Amino acid sequence: MDNAVDVVNYVLGDGVDKVYQFVRGASGDIFNYSGITAIDVFTLGANTQLRISDGIDGNADFGKGQLLVTLFGTSGFNNADVDVNLFGANFLFS
C-alpha cells in the first residue's frame, strides 16, 4: 500500500478489470464510472465485484450482471463510500 490517492476511470465497454490494493474511505482511492447507470457492489469473500445492475435493490438478479471490476483484497463497501470512493453511477450494495 502506498500513500497516494489512485484514480481509476472506467467507461462502459472497457472490459473486465482487476484492481489490487484499492484503499476505501476518506483519503482513499477513487473509482469514476462513465456511461453506466447502475452498479451492483457485491462482496465475495475478501474481494468486491462491481457489476452492471438493473437498478433494483435486493432483487433475485442482484450481483449477476456483467462483471466490470474485481477489487482484490477489498471488501466492506457501503452507502458511505458513494461520493467518497465511488462516483458516476447509482450504486447498490449486497
Following the backbone from N to C, one meets helices and strands in this order, namely: EEEEEEEE
Strand percent estimate:
35-45%
The percent of residues in helical segments reads under 10%
Number of helices: 0
Describe the structure.
The protein has 94 residues and is mostly beta strands. It has one domain. 0% of the residues lie in helices and 41% in strands. The strands form 2 sheets. It has a 5-stranded mixed beta sheet, with no helix packed on it. The relative contact order is 0.29. The model has no long low-confidence stretch (mean pLDDT 91). This is Peptidase M10 serralysin C-terminal domain-containing protein.
Q: Which features characterize this protein?
A:
single chain; 94 residues; mainly beta; 0% helix; Peptidase M10 serralysin C-terminal domain-containing protein
What is the topological layout?
Blueprint: E1 7-11, E2 17-20, E3 30-34, E4 38-44, E5 47-52, E6 67-72, E7 86-87, E8 90-93
Parallel strand pairs: 1-3, 2-6, 3-7, 4-8
Antiparallel strand pairs: 4-5, 5-6
